[in-house]
Amino acid sequence: MAWFRKSARQRHETLDEDLWTICPSCKVHTYKQEWQAGLKVCPKCNYHERIGCMERRDLLVDSGTWREYAGHVTTSDPLNFSDAKGPYSEKAAAAKAKTGLSESVLTGDGKINGIPVSFAIMDFSFLGGSLSGGAGEKITLTAEHAGRHRWPFIIISASGGARMHEGIVSLMQMAKTCAAIARLNELDVPYISILTDPTTGGVSASFAMMGDINIAEPRALIGFAGRRVIEETIKQKLPDDFQTAEYLLEHGFIDHIVARKDMKEFLHRVLQYSQKH
Amino acid sequence: MAWFRKSARQRHETLDEDLWTICPSCKVHTYKQEWQAGLKVCPKCNYHERIGCMERRDLLVDSGTWREYAGHVTTSDPLNFSDAKGPYSEKAAAAKAKTGLSESVLTGDGKINGIPVSFAIMDFSFLGGSLSGGAGEKITLTAEHAGRHRWPFIIISASGGARMHEGIVSLMQMAKTCAAIARLNELDVPYISILTDPTTGGVSASFAMMGDINIAEPRALIGFAGRRVIEETIKQKLPDDFQTAEYLLEHGFIDHIVARKDMKEFLHRVLQYSQKH
Amino acid sequence: MDLDFEKPLEAIEQRIAELKALNNRADVNFDTEIAALERKLQTASKRVYAKLTPWETVQIARHAERPLLRDYIQGLCSEFIELHGDRCFGDDQGIIGGFATLRDQRVMLIGHQKGKTIEEKIKANFGMASPDGYRKAMRLMHLAAKYKLPIVSFIDTPGAYPGFEAEARGQAEAIARNLTEMSLLPVPVVVIVTGEGGSGGAIGIGVGNVVLMLSNAVYSVISPEGCASILWRDGSKAPLAASALKITAAALQEQGVIDEIILEPEGGAHRNPAAAINATGDAIVEQLRRLKKISSKRLIEQRYEKFSKIGRFKK
Amino acid sequence: MDLDFEKPLEAIEQRIAELKALNNRADVNFDTEIAALERKLQTASKRVYAKLTPWETVQIARHAERPLLRDYIQGLCSEFIELHGDRCFGDDQGIIGGFATLRDQRVMLIGHQKGKTIEEKIKANFGMASPDGYRKAMRLMHLAAKYKLPIVSFIDTPGAYPGFEAEARGQAEAIARNLTEMSLLPVPVVVIVTGEGGSGGAIGIGVGNVVLMLSNAVYSVISPEGCASILWRDGSKAPLAASALKITAAALQEQGVIDEIILEPEGGAHRNPAAAINATGDAIVEQLRRLKKISSKRLIEQRYEKFSKIGRFKK
Ligand SMILES: [Zn+2]
Ligand SMILES: [Zn+2]
């Protein structure tokens, strides 16, 4: 849930000259243009920078096939919530203005090399990709839509967890979205989960973990409880690789770690096994 | 599978005077009559001596309600097997003569405080309770019979594992009996597994572990691989309580440990939850 | 063990006790004084509990003498056959469950266990369940489905256990699986939030056809302390966060999450556990009677609709 | 690395190699001699392999150069997408699996992995799977059921891993659950015993609609060594036990356990892996084509009947 506390690993430093990107992981300098062309993945150490939902969509969906779904759903403020920094409604409005998104998740349909698929793509830059009533609603509506069309459903998670500004409504989205996934299972409609950096809290403990196939980006942070909370609980330091995609692969929760540039091709290969044979 | 190697713990010493039973576990002397009246359970340390299928039946089934089922099935000798001690057929004949049983399992129907139930009750004294083609057949036929009548099915295991003298046929009984249990699950027919000393090898790795509820007698030996094999594999001594009922309870594989004298009442209580409400 | 806002009541109670001890000794009679004090106590009590702040409610929900799962079982069930194990790794004590006869109803009862004594608390991890706890709960719920038994789930947890092993063995996966599979259970599921409904650890056994809640229980996406330290950067602002999060029964009923509030006796469940337990029993049995008339198919649909509606977008 | 009974063949082979090396050097020609020796090799070879004892077959089944799962995948599959993890504890390497395109067939492929190099062998525990391996396999088989993919299961294991942790985490439960749940799979299940079919560890992924077996593979309730040390009280009597247990493909086909024997090239699969792999591919594809025409309901029934018949009592 602590999506606004950026860890050192994820904080970027850029040179003033706007020419270089310094990899936050290995500190290597890469030409900004090259960094962009490399899909914001460090050519040296394979560090995958966070990217937005639009970029993800463009990486995965066949050009010209995207149609947004449930785009009318936007943030609500069920609690009329305010905190030290002011009203949640203002914070949400600012996030909308900054990102151009209506919620922390973009939903719609498109094709992957010709195969029709429904998508829910989370965006960490919208309030830390937090799961709100609106986000849960978009995911659920899109899952139901995928079910009606018998289209495979893909969720790309990037989230610090539930959006506490919406209180219990945000917590309930875990149950709501999982129920929608359960219905897809009943219909034998494929559901693939892609876990990107970070996928934590209530998002890891709901739809993100329930893919027929769980795919992660390299070194993505994936976990339920926060690192600091665990260290306080057990009174000792955690291993460095704890809660990384690689750690989860080894512990049985991830099927495959796939680099960003290979993701579309990998999805296409996998989806072929879920089509009529 | 090494059912004929009696461990020290299970070897009994009786005094010549036929008056006392010495508990193999705590060495306390108990009058034979008292030992019998106590259902062959040590009054001092709760050690549960192995008992035969007839004794078990009489402890559990309402008087006068027992009807044997599949009693015509007896041992076969599919391999025409002989070992150092001679032909398997002779060994089987001797076991039949000694025990008065046709196989290592007694199958039939009876009532538990008025509730009709189908039973398969293994007997360790018949070739170590080993799972043979005949035993698997009896269990499977009785499971099917229970399914047709929608009667709860109870298996009481006491077995060193598969009967190697029947080769692959004995191994296949693991799959055969589990398939019969799967059908009971499909029919929502209750299946309760009672694991007594010992339940090991292929019996532990098939029907014995698949109860809706797994019940064990105190301190029963329950495990897949033999203790010595494991110690040889890992090159270290195992903890004393390893593969005991209590160990399995703690590790999540047993629902309840129930003393012999309480078993019928416990089953009756549990069965009421599986009846129409 | 009284809470700060209960101090005035405590003073009156103490005075009553003193007078009762003296009463009729040495021919002095205090009946009139005692009656007056008792009236005063009642009035004061009404005043205090009528205007509890959310933060005060949190204190009551966590009160050391508040009835726990074992008290409900003892008070309501003529029989409880505990079933153990997740068939995979262990037998967590943070969640327990088994067959129960609750009043006249045979059910599968599951719930968080916090523990009374310090040994029990440690064994149960103070009600913070591990993956094996959630997996055991799900196994028992599938068994209930096979036996066509209604499920009664008692929620009282600070949250799922944030430990190293719990994380390594899939705390996230275990909760996610429960949320998914509970949604398809073909039997009635009655959930009762009796104390603390702590986030994912609570909802992990909380997908019910109805969700009941005791009047002084709380149910929240994050603890007030956690929320305060994140959004106010100051843990001591927990009372503020408790208000902002709207975590009391009444607020949650307004949000459509809670279907029915079980009124605690005056002064809270810890002042009269028997009455609280009894009221809880009444509410559960009423729901069971109603839900048992509904078909499996409709139960699944209704549960789906209940959660679908939460956060439904209206424009 | 030749086996004892292969020594005579080895001698002839060596002589042929020598002659070939000398051939046409210094104007000497050995063509006639070479041709004669090759005829001799063929005859000797036929003689040796036509009357292999069961114990010799065991040696071949365990031969270090016998093709392993990865060889079959490489030889038969244009694509293999390995899927990982049991969603509970780990990602055992003793059993692996994933989506595969075997010839023209999309399938869920699973199987025991023994490993080629010593590192691989250690990682895969020499093909002895742990509970997480069996649970991973079952997860993938359920996924195959959802995606309506046939399942192809390759058996080659000395047995399930008899380790402390494997036992503590439910080796018995994991195998039992697979036996139970495999019996209800609504898709075709083709099982192939390619090398060692070691007891419970083998049947744990072996409940198929058809069970194929390579001609020099073995499948047994216990290893010959184990059987000998128990029933003969002498491990060196393994050859005797191997005979008595009737563990060769032909004997097992007679017993109704094996549906089809895949003929290995002369000298065994290790002398011509490509041919063995190819024959295996042919057999699998033929079975898949046949089974894919059968309804789910009938597949489940047929699988049940297949195993029911084994040990069926006749009098
Ligand atoms: Zn880098
Ligand atoms: Zn004793």
Number of helices of chain A: 9
Largest interface: A-C, 67 and 57 residues
Overall 3D shape of chain C: globular
CATH class of the largest domain in chain A: Alpha Beta
CATH topology of the largest domain in chain C: 2-enoyl-CoA Hydratase, Chain A, domain 1
Q: Identify the CATH homologous superfamily of the largest domain in chain A.
A: 2-enoyl-CoA Hydratase, Chain A, domain 1
CATH topology of the largest domain in chain A: the name is 2-enoyl-CoA Hydratase, Chain A, domain 1
Structural class of chain C: alpha/beta
> Judging from the principal axes of the Cα atoms, what is the shape of chain A?
globular
**End-to-end separation of chain C:** 49 Å
* Strand coverage percent of chain C: 15-25%
- Could you give the count of β-strands of chain C? 8
Quickly count the helices of chain C. 14
3D architecture notes:
- The complex is a heterotetramer, with 2 copies of chain A (277 residues) and 2 copies of chain C (315 residues).
- Chain A contains 9 helices and 12 strands.
- Chain A is α/β, with parallel strands linked by helices and 277 residues long.
- Chain A folds into 2 domains: 47 residues, no CATH class; 227 residues, 2-enoyl-CoA Hydratase, Chain A, domain 1, CATH 3.90.226.10.
- In chain A, a hairpin with a 6-residue loop joins strand 1 and strand 2.
- Chain A starts with 19 loop residues before the first strand and ends in a 5-residue tail after the last helix.
- The N terminus of chain A is likely disordered.
- Chain C is an alpha/beta fold and 315 residues long.
- The longest helix of chain C has 20 residues.
- The mean pLDDT of chain C is 95.
- Classes of the chains: A alpha/beta (277), C alpha/beta (315).
- Chains A and C meet through strand 4, helix 4, helix 5, helix 6 and strand 11 of A and helix 7, helix 8, helix 9, helix 10 and helix 11 of C.
- The complex binds zinc ion (2 copies).
- One zinc ion binds next to loops of chain B.
